Amino acid sequence: MIRVFTSPMKSSFRNLFHPRRRTYCSIETKKDILFDPTKQICKIMMSCPKLGVATALDQSGIRPSPEVVEQVLKRFTNAGMLVYQFFDWAGKQRNYEHSIKAYHAMIESLAKIRQYEIMWDLINTMRTKNLLNIETFCIIMRKYARAQKVEEAIYTFNIMEKYNTPPNLSAFNGLLSALCKSRNVRKAQEIFDTMKERFKPDQKTYSILIEGWGKDPNLPKAREIYKEMENDGCTPDIVTYGIMVDILCKTGRVDEAIDIIKDMEYNGCGPTSFIYSILIHTYGIENRIEDAVDTFLEMERNGVRADVAVYNALISAFCKVNKVKNAYRVLNEMECKKVNPNSRTCNILLNHLIDRKESNEAFKVFKRMIKICEPDADTYTMMIKMFCETGDIEMGQKVWKYMKGKQFVPSLHTFSVMINGLCENEDASEACVLMEEMIEKGIRPPRLTFGRLRKLLLDQKRDDVFEFLQQKLNLLVKEPLCD
Questions:
Q1: In the chain, which end has fewer C-beta atoms inside a 10 angstrom radius, N or C?
Q2: CB–CB of 342/379 below 8 Å?
């Protein structure tokens, strides 16, 4: 049974961050930090020591293990050059060698801030240690493609042989996937047509192309590849079926998607929770809430256990038709069924409430959700932006401090929202502190954000401060952002 949602206890915005309620400053947490090397390292890195990260870590006496390094790298994936300083320090410690997983995490972080030269230095180091594998090159191709550096992604595939890692079907699929996910499906199709004799396509190859054409969107071409797959003797698997259902639903052809599901069942492939989540989400978008609920109930009757994606789709459907109380009931149902909400669950509810200008209710949801799941960058960005737009910059800053206390490294968008809010409040000093931190992490600020701070500084006759920031930025990029 879906229970009635009980609203969080009413309180003002200011109570969440009352000093006595800051769990990250509690005695228990300090004890945890004392005996947990991962938490010790994270605390040092978040404190931005003036002596430098390497010196502070040396003085701490911590000796990292591969597992600890991997955990820190995962947590600081948005930290740019700061996390590279840690990675470099760890690699110099006695009796320690970076794992392949650590190298891959660092490569992803560097590519995210477009530090490609350092990234290739790491790849060359991996080559000398015989650590390179297919996944290494797939990561690089993904990152280049995401940055719309298509030729570099293809070049990476073509030089694999020189790095003693001959490309196979898995690498071929990796290249096609990188291109398709970055909206370069036509280039992917061209490469497929050229190389399909060299690499015998499998279900995954065809599924990648079908999904790519679906995102284009080009339904006729997706159908054509689906037919080619069958003609090539490749039987569609559950992934291919799911992709076709998704494409058809997104193009408004739900009835045709239902036919695909019937074909699945005929071929002995029952619908998965992923496919049900697609249908429920689609019905939600189309305001067909009764169909969404019926599909959920049908799924339960068929013995398919609802996962967090299904519940998120149902919550989203209820929000779409402004039935937020029903969405809260679904949230309680998740708790009853031991299905843990995730940041996406939280973000769906927050986005709906913020769009409806229900800031108080959004904050209540935020307070409830942070007790049961970890917020992500989108969660913090939404909350900070909400407070800044409602003129409560102080609460925006408190959310920021809470996020930093949780040792969560802000993303580019989170930085930008906070800096824009401070500029709107004409707090140039605090905005400059965050801008400097952003640049020092190797994150290039967006033009609009940097330009807005520039205007504020010049209006306040603080040209010297702007010149200082511009010089720091020029060390990060070859050309300045502003004239």
A1: C
A2: no
